[in-house]
Specification:
- The structure is a homodimer.
- Chain A is an all-alpha fold.
- The first copy, chain A, folds into 2 domains: 1-57, Arc Repressor Mutant, subunit A (Orthogonal Bundle); 58-204, Orthogonal Bundle (Tetracycline Repressor, domain 2).
- Chain A has helices at residues 6-35, 38-45, 49-55, 59-82, 88-105, 109-121, 128-135, 142-151, 160-178, 190-197.
- Chain A is elongated and about 60 Å long.
- The N and C termini of chain A lie far apart (73 Å).
- Chain A binds chain B through residues 30-35, 116-117, 119-124, 129, 156, 159, 161-162, 165-166, 168-174, 176-177, 179-180, 184, 187-188, 192, 196, 199-202, and chain B through 30-35, 116-117, 119-124, 129, 156, 159, 161-162, 165-166, 168-174, 176-177, 179-180, 184, 187-188, 192, 196, 199-202.
- Chain A binds a DNA duplex through residues 1-5, 8-9, 12-13, 16, 37-39, 47-51, 53-54, 57-59.
DNA sequence: GTCTATACACTGATAGAC
DNA sequence: GTCTATCAGTGTATAGAC
C-alpha cells in the first residue's frame, strides 16, 4: 500500500526538515525575524520554496520551532547543571561552565542568538512572549539556589532575585557582545559569570 | 521673497522633524528596524508620508539619525561622569549613577533600546556597524579607569578589558531585561553595576 | 497506477519611495 | 496618493519509489 518504504520515507522527511531548520537558524540569527525572508532560507538551505511550505505552514511557525528548540537547549543546560551532585554553590559553578560552553563555543550557540532576536523583536510576533514565559520557567530555579549558597557563605549577600537577574544580564549581555567580537570567548571563562555571585568579602 | 518669516519657518521645520524623530524612536525601539514600517511612523507621528520623505531620504536614514542621537546621549553620559572631579573609582560610581538614570528612568531610555536593536539587526543595515564603532569610541575610556582604581585597591583584580566588557554586559543585559519587565528599575540601583567592578576582598 | 517529496510560476497584499 | 518591487503564501505539476 505504501508506495515507498515507510522507513526510508521518514528518513527523507527528517533530512529535509533538518536542512530547512539549520538554514533558518543561521539566517534568523543574523537578520532577525522581520529581516529574514523565506527566499533567504530557501537559498541558504538549497531546497525549494514549495518544500519549505510543505514542512512548515508559515514563516512564523518556522521561527516558533527554532525558539522551541532554543528553549530545549537552554533548559537541558540548566537541568544538567542542577542535577550535578554537590552543594548549591557547586551547582552554580557547573551552570556557568555549561552555559559558557553551550552558548559560546558550541554548535548550539546560534540558538542563544535567536533567543536574543526573539526578546528584542518578540512584540511584533503574537504569542511569542507568552510562549517564552511559559517554557522558560527553568530560569526561576536560580534564586533559591543563590539563597542556599548565601547561607553557606559562598554566594554574596543581596536579594537573590536581583542577583539572579544580574547573572542572567551578564550572560545575555555577553551573548550580545559576542555578535560583533567573534573571539570574545577566548578572553572570558565560566568564572566571569560565577564571579558575579561569589562572596569575595571577609565574612566567609 | 520669503512668504513666511524665516524664523517661523525654521521653527516649523524643527517641530515637524522632532515629531517624526520622536515617533520613529518609539516605533523602532518596539519593533526593530525591519519590523517597523514607514506607515507606522507616519501614523504614530501624525504627519503625512510625504512630509516624512521631505525630511528624511529613506527609512534607513531615519534609523541612522536615531543611532546618531543615541550615541550622543550615551557619549554625553560617559563624558559627564569622567569629568567629575575625584578619584577613578568615584568616576566609575558616577558613571553607574548616570547610566542608570539615563537608561532606566529617563525620557532618553528608548535610545538605549534602539541601540540594542542596532546591535542585533545591524548586519542587515550596510555601514551601521562601522558607524557605531567609529562614534562609540567613548567605551574605550573605561579600561584605563579600572586600571587606576585597581591600583588604589577599590576595583577588583583582573584584566581591565574583560572587566570593562563585563560591566557593559551587565548594563546591556539589564536593558534587555527591561524590555519585558517595566518596573525592573525599582528593583536595582546604580550599585548593581558598580558592584561588578568593586573590590570586596580583604586585601584593601 | 498510486502516493509523496519536491519544484516553481503565480497571486494578492503591502512595503518603501517619491 | 501613486508607483513599483518584493514579500509571504499557494496551486499545480512532476519525478520517482513501490
Amino acid at each position: 500500500m505504501s508506495p515507498r518504504g515507510q522507513e526510508r520515507n521518514e528518513k527523507m522527511r527528517a533530512i529535509a526538515k533538518t536542512k530547512i531548520t539549520k538554514a533558518a537558524l543561521e539566517v534568523f540569527a543574523e537578520y532577525g525575524y522581520h529581516g529574514t525572508t523565506i527566499k533567504q532560507i530557501v537559498q541558504s538551505s538549497g531546497v525549494s520554496k514549495g518544500l519549505v511550505y510543505h514542512y512548515f505552514p508559515s514563516k512564523e511557525r518556522i521561527f516558533f520551532h527554532l525558539i522551541e528548540l532554543a528553549l530545549e537547549v537552554s533548559k537541558k543546560a540548566w537541568i544538567k547543571s542542577l542535577d550535578t551532585p554537590g552543594t548549591a554553590w557547586q551547582k552554580i559553578e557547573k551552570l556557568s561552565q555549561i552555559l559558557f560552553k553551550t552558548a559560546f563555543t558550541d554548535e548550539n550557540s546560534l540558538y542563544f542568538v535567536v533567543m536574543l532576536q526573539a526578546i528584542t523583536q518578540g512584540k511584533s510576533i503574537p504569542g511569542l512572549f507568552e510562549y517564552i514565559m511559559m517554557h522558560g520557567a527553568h530560569y526561576g530555579l536560580l534564586p533559591p539556589l543563590i539563597h542556599k549558597a548565601q547561607k553557606s557563605g559562598e554566594a554574596r549577600q543581596g536579594d537573590p532575585d536581583v542577583l539572579s537577574s544580574t547573572y542572567l544580564a551578564v550572560f545575555q549581555g555577553y551573548t550580545l557582545l559576542l555578535l560583533h567580537d567573534k573571539d570574545l570567548h577566548t578572553k572570558i571563562t565560566p568564572e566571569t559569570f560565577t564571579d558575579v555571585l561569589r562572596n569575595r568579602g571577609r565574612n566567609k
